[in-house]
Design a protein that fits this description.
The protein has 139 residues and is an all-alpha fold. It has one domain. It is built from 7 helices and no strands. α2 crosses α3, α2 packs antiparallel against α6 and α4 packs antiparallel against α6. The longest helix is centred in the first third of the chain and has 28 residues.
């Protein structure tokens, strides 16, 4: 059972600067994975169009971002649970967006733009869910 003193100590020991830095690191790692792996795929002649194959293009982009984030999180010592949750935040926006795409409400580029916007709060929610891990002093 957690006492008020233990809870106050946990809040006091949280490193909010470290939390913010980790968030920024995740955004950088996400975009690094997206740009570097997209460049490698393009150099290899692999291209998936948001116009003709929007679902595949989005899923490939989410995978590329996830690889960048997962590599950085594992380097920083995070476990697989939090790493996979953060990667899921890259794919989660597809859940409401793909049906809108299929109904013709948005196009492939709309999916990409809306998904990018939705990823940032999704990542933040994962970090808040594991607040002690991301705002603690374990790193």
């Amino acid at each position: 059972m957690t006492t008020k003193t233990e809870t106050a100590t946990q809040v006091k020991n949280r490193n909010w600067g470290g939390f913010a830095l980790h968030y920024v690191e995740m955004v950088i790692a996400m975009f690094a994975g997206m740009f570097l792996l997209d460049f490698a795929e393009s150099a290899a002649g692999l291209h998936v169009s948001y116009t003709t194959q929007p679902e595949a293009a989005y899923l490939l982009m989410a995978l590329n971002m996830s690889i960048g984030m997962a590599a950085w999180m594992r380097f920083r010592g995070h476990g697989w649970g939090s790493t996979l949750e953060m990667c899921a935040a890259m794919f989660a926006p597809a859940v409401p967006l793909f049906p809108l795409l299929w109904l013709g409400v948005i196009d492939g580029h709309g999916v990409m733009m809306a998904a990018h916007v939705a990823m940032f709060p999704a990542m933040l929610l994962v970090m808040l869910r594991r607040l002690d891990e991301f705002a603690g002093h374990h790193h």
